[in-house]
Protein: mannosyl-glycoprotein endo-beta-N-acetylglucosaminidase
Organism: Cocos nucifera
Amino acid sequence: MCRPRILLPRFRSRRGVLTTHRLLLPPLRFLRRLLLPPLRLLHRVVAMADKPDPGPPQEERRPWEPPFDPSKPSTPISYPITTLDALESRSYFDSFHFPFNKASVPLPSSATGVLPARRRLLVCHDFKSGYRDDIWVQGGANPDAYAIWHWYLMDVFVYFSHYLVTLPPPCWTNAAHTHGVKVLGTFLTEWDEGTAICNTLLSSKTSAQMYAERLTELATAVGFDGWLVNMEVNLDLQQIDNLKEFIRHLSLTMHSSVPGSLVIWYDAVTVDGKLDWQDQLNEKNKPFFDLCDGIFVNYSWNEKYPEVSATVAGNRRFDVYMGIDVFGRNTYGGGQWNTNIALDLLKNDDVSAAIFAPGWVYETDQQPDFQTAQNRWWGLVEQSWGRLQSYPKLLPFYSNFDQGHGYHYSIEGLQVADDPWNNISCQGFQPLIYNFTNPSQTNVQAFINFKDASYSGGGNITAKGSLKDNTSFSTMLFFGELPLENLPVHILYSVKLVGNSILGLCLDLSSEINGRKSVLIINDVQTFSTVNHLTNKYDEIIYSQVKKTKMEVLADAAWIVYESSVKMSGYILTGIHVVGSNMRRPGMTESATSDGTKLENETVSTDGFSPYCASLGHITIRTSEQNLAFPPADSWITEGQHISWTSHSQETKAVSLKIAWKLKSGNTTSFMNYNIFVEKIAKDATSDRIYEVPSYLGIAKVETFYVSDLDVPSGITYLRFIIQVCGLDGACQELQESPAFVLAVEGQ
């Protein structure tokens, strides 16, 4: 989507935004065609200046480039297909890395059909040419890696790079699918190499169909939902019929193989074979639009083009995605912090939008920090476009608020790793975090906390500030569309409290017959009696009880897990809030705290405010029928493959291997992921085994995990790799009951 463009003069319109002067369009269009070939080289330089670090420098070797051999075992990576020969030969399926790259999270049933009949938002990734920190399938070591967590604002996510076949890394597909967002890969031809590729691809109708089928095979096998087709080359007129056949056949085979899938055409090549961006839907690109599911219109449109395009599209106006380049390159409104200007216009014209390169926030180091800037930028999108996704919709529902990166990692309250990490596959359902506060009563703000120990994953929601006596704060976490059936719904949540702070949940419920209702869930009667100022705010109060956890002996004692039950037949759960207040516990002084720690300025100030700090670690909602019973260890077949030993010294050696597992019978659809641990086992003089504390190795989203260069000290005779099964409700099997693979140490 980088292309040479002549920058047209801009003038103020009546709307007060920059638009192209119509009088200059005819001569400049002619000039653009005249200068297009020599400008191609110049554009590469301009693009580099406009967009910091758009890709690797020539001397940087990407991990999949020679001497990389995809057939040999190594740390699993995601990578593109760069040649037509590799696409035709299906060699990707013979790669050692292929099984690791399968997305494990399917789209929810509510998102598997056609897109809703309304204006939509497509987001095109384009982050530094793709395949950066997200290349490491099992996770990387960058706690500040780029990620997106505002999934509730989009319908379609495109993973883009400047390679022939861009396969989305499974982490993006897993995170997007969790939130009901479709994911597309990219098929791209550009420059002279792209022309040569098209000469082969479009040499015959049979050839066009064959390559379309190869792309469909890839999307189906890897688990994503379609393709963005971006042809940025000049074609011979006689190739156009075969290009149409390629698009038609790709759409046909995708729809047949993946119901609800999409093929989107990019506005570049015209029906007469010219590389001539139209910036609108018109007679020169509509023949391609008619053969697929939509068009991504180039981003140099003026304020009249969306309405014109909608008219041309007829009853398919929502399949027209008007491009917006966030870097602001010749984009209506200027992109960047003014991206919402273009969105507002498209909203008024009731057509869809395609946001290109939202990674601008990260790449240009917007201040004061990425988290703050990212939330602010997407907040502008939300203000303009509105919220598009709702959850929970289905049970079980589980969120630990993990964004897929952090500085430590916890499982059910136990911190198992204190190393920096990133893995977008670990994203749970992402909260909205709408803080509803009255400045005269509270300045408490909720935020994702990566610093302090989490209950699960790498983060938690922490609310911190000060509260006036006999007041509370409320923060919206989720907008839902969850019908509550006749069975009781069980709600579990973990909290960490500091001082006199208390924390509960509020459920928004709606019924066509009974209207709206708000239900407060709080920990116990004794606590609630000290905050009875809340009684008038809620229609019903439900008291939760402390739940004993499997790992409570090992878990951080500061985390408390509560459980409650709600039965609201005929209602729909429409919202989940976190609610907090301060209390005085019986027998405690004003400055006392629950755990012996102190808050800064913990005593009540003269203005009646007291400090507040509490954290929410996770939320689980399920029915009693969904209380998962894990298969016993002997229900699994485990094996080690590609086992390789190396000696580091006389004292240590290292082992690399692929661990694979599968159930002897049944399926694994009720499992969310697998935590991988290792026990290093030695023998003493009496031959009795000595077990070391299991060490956490990582997380697997598929039934295989690669262990790379694991240190094995002298004297260790066996390695026991434990595969801890985790359910969709966030519950994890006890380690001693989990399946395992035992490996004898070489030479012992």
Residues 113 and 457 are 32 Å apart (CA to CA). The longest strand covers residues 609-623. The radius of gyration is 28 Å. The first helix runs from residue 25 to 50.
